Amino acid sequence: MTRRTRLNPLTWLAAAGSTAAVTTAAASWQLSVAVIAACLGLSLAGGTARRVLPAAAAVLVPFGLSLLVLHGLFFPEGRTVLAEWGPARVTAEGLEFAGQRILLLAAVVMALLLFSFSISVPDLVAALSARGVQGRFAFVLASTLTLLPAIAARAQRIRHAQESRGLVVTRSLVSRVGAFRLQAVPLVLSLIEDAGTRAAAVEARGLSSPGPRTSYREVPDSSLQRTARAVLVLLAVAAVVLRLVQAGAGG
Amino acid sequence: MVTSGPQNKGNTGSDSNAPAAVLAAGIRHFTFHDGHVPALRDVAVSFPAGSFTAILGASGSGKSTLGRLLAGWLPPGGHGALSGFLELSGTRLEFDGGPGDPRINPAEWGRQVGFVPQDPTTVLSTVRATVAEELAFGLENAGMERGAMVAAVERTAGLLGLRSKLGQDPARLSGGQLRRLAIGCAIIAGPPVLVMDEPFASLDAAGTAELAALVRDLLDGGTAVVVLSQTVDPLLTEAGTWVVLSDGTVTASGPPAGLESSSGALPAAIRRPGPTQAAARALPQAAGIEPGPPALQLRNVSFGYPEAPARGKRKRKSAQAGQPNHPALVLRDVDLTVHQGEIVAVTGPNGAGKSTLLRHFNGLLRPSSGSVAVGGVDIAGAPVGRTAASVGLLFQQPRDQLFERTVLREVSFGLDHLVGPAAAKDRAAEALRKVGLAAAAEDHPAELPASAQRLLALATVLARRPAVLALDEPTVALDGDGLAVLDAAVRWAAAEGGAVVLVTHDLGYARSAAHRILALDGGRLVPA
Predict the structure, then answer these.
(1) What's the rounded Cα separation, in Å, for the pair A179 and A165?
(2) Nearest CA in chain B to A1
(3) Would you call A213 and B143 a contact, using CB atoms and an 8 Å cutoff?
(4) In terms of CB atoms within 10 Å, which end of chain B has fewer, N or C?
(5) Partner residue facing A47 (CB), from B129, B309, B312
(6) pTM here?
C-alpha cells in the first residue's frame, strides 16, 4: 500500500474547530475573508473543491439570502436609508452587518466542510478508537459519514435492476425524478432490512464488547502535530475567553 | 445419534459413546414472531471438538435458521421464540419462549462460534476501507495487540487466497472473493466452532480446494466444523455425521456411508454432483443456426473500471503513485457471437470478470473500446431500459435484482410497458408457474428461501421473453428442484429461439447444458 505523509484527522478536526471558534469570536470581516480564501486555496490544492463548493453553496445561499433580507431590510440601528417601503428600510448599516454575518458564516461553513471532505473516515474512526472512544460510537460516526455513499450505491443497484427490466432513464429531469420515485420505497425497505442483518453481524464480531480495543489501521501522528493541536485548542479557548471578557467590559 | 450431554471426549460423535460437545442444541420448536408454524421443531444436534458435521437440506428446510440460531445471529426472543436449549462450552441455556428466557450475548457467543452466512455481503461492517481492516474488525474489538493482528490477517489471507486483495476496498470484490473474505472474518480469531451456510456457493475450483484444505486444517486443530448445504459437495463425504433436515425437522442422521446407501434418506432436492455431470462428455448440439444477424455480438470489447471513487485527492494520488495511469483492463479485445437457439457457457475463476462481461450485454456497463450489438443493432447510446426489451439479465445476487413488496409485483415490474397490461398479467402468472412459485405470489421476496429468491429473479427475466438471456452464476443457491427448473427454463428459452449466455464456475452444469463453453482468462475469452 502506498502511503503518503498525511495529517492526522484529529489535527484536521482541531484546525477546523479552532478556525471556526476564532473567526466567530473575532467577528472581523477581514479575518473571515482571509479564512474563506485560505479554505478555497486548500480545497483547490487538495482536489476537494468540486465537492466542497457545491455543498457550501447549498448551505450558504439560503442562509445568506435570509440574513440579507433580515438585516438588510429590518435593521433598527440603521441610519443611512437607501430605500424604504413602509416598515421595511434598506440601510447601509444593515447591509454592512448582513455582509459581515454572511462572510463569517461562509468562513465557518467552509472550514468545517473542508475538514469533512479532506479527512479519511477510516482514519478518523481509528484515531478516535485509539483514544478510547467507545467502539459503538465510533461505528455510528463512521456509518453516518459513509451513509451517503452507501445509499447511493444501493440506489444504483436498484436502478440497475429496474433498468434491466425495461425502466428507461434518460438525462431529462422528469425521467430522473420519475425513476427516483420508483426507487425510493425499495431503497428505504432494503436499507432497513440490511441494517437488521448487519447489526447481527457486527454484534457477533464484538462491536459492543466492553474493554479496550485496538486499531489495525495506523494513523499518522507526530509530536509536531500533537503540539499543533494543543496550540490550536488553546487559541480557540483564548479567543472565546477574550471575546467574553470584551463583551463583559463593554456592557 | 445427535444428542447432547456431558460425555467423554472423542473424535467424531458418530458413535453412541459420543464425546462432550462444544456446541449443542435441543430445539423443541422455534417459531418466528410473524410465523404461524414453527420454522424448526424436534431438532437435536451436538458438535464435539474436532468433529465435522454436514447439515443437509433443500432450500426452505430450515437450514439457515438453524445455522443462525447456532451462531448467535438469531438470538431467541429477538425475532422468534425458542423452546428448548442451546449449549456452548458446557453452559446450557434453557428457553421456553417466555420473558424469563436467558439472553445471549452475541459478542461472547461470536467469540466461540464463527459464522459464515449464506449471503457473504452481510458480514461486512461497511466502515472498513480495506480487506485487511475488514478481516481485523473482530480482533480490534477484542483488543488484540497490533503486531499479532497483522500476523493473523496475513495468515488468514494466505489461507484463503486473498493476500493480493488486502489493500482493496471490500465493496469491489467479486462474489467468490467476498465469500472468501466472509470465511476469513469468521475464522481469523480461531473460534472453537465454525458454522458455514452454503460456503461452496459461488466459489471457483481453486476456492473450493482451498476451503477443503482449510476445513481439514481446522479439524486437525480441534475446531468443530458445521457445514449447512443443499449440495453434497465432495468434501462433505469426509464429514463424520450427516444430519438431514426437511421441513424444519431432522429426518435422518448418521455417518454419510449409511445415509448414502439407505434409499430415501436424502430428499431428492438435495443436489449431488454425480460423476455423469462432472465428467467430460460431448456437449449438446444447437438445433442449427438460424439465418439473420446473430442475437448477440461483441466485437473487440475492452473494459477497465475507473479508479475507485476517491475520498479526496490523497487517495487518487496514492493510487496513481503505485500503478500506471490507466486502469487495469478487466476485458481485453473480447469477441463473442451468439446465435439464436444457442446456449453458451462462460467459465473462469472468481474475479475473472465474468459478471463484468454480462453487464455489457444490456449496456449497464459500456465498453472502453469495441462494440456490442443485439440482433444486429449496436446498443451504444441506447438506454439500458430499451435494450432490456431484447436482453434479460439475471444478476449474481438475487437481492440485487429483487426490490418489490410481493412476488407478483416483482415479476410484473415493467411488463405492462413491454406487452400491455392485459398480456402482462398472463405473462407474470406464466413465469411464476414455470418456476413453481405460483402459490407464493403474495409473499414478500425477501422472506423466500434463497433458492426461491433465485427462481423468482429468473421468473422476472423469463416473463419478458428476451431474445438474449444472460445468466450470472444461475446455479448458485439452487437446490436440486431449483436446478431442474433452471435447466428446463434454459432449454425452453433456447428452443424458442432465444440465445442464452450463462457465466458459471460450475463446470459440471456448463457441460450438461451448454452447446459451447468459453473461458475468461486474463480478460480474454478463449475456448475452454
Answers:
(1) 13
(2) B167
(3) yes
(4) N
(5) B312
(6) 0.77
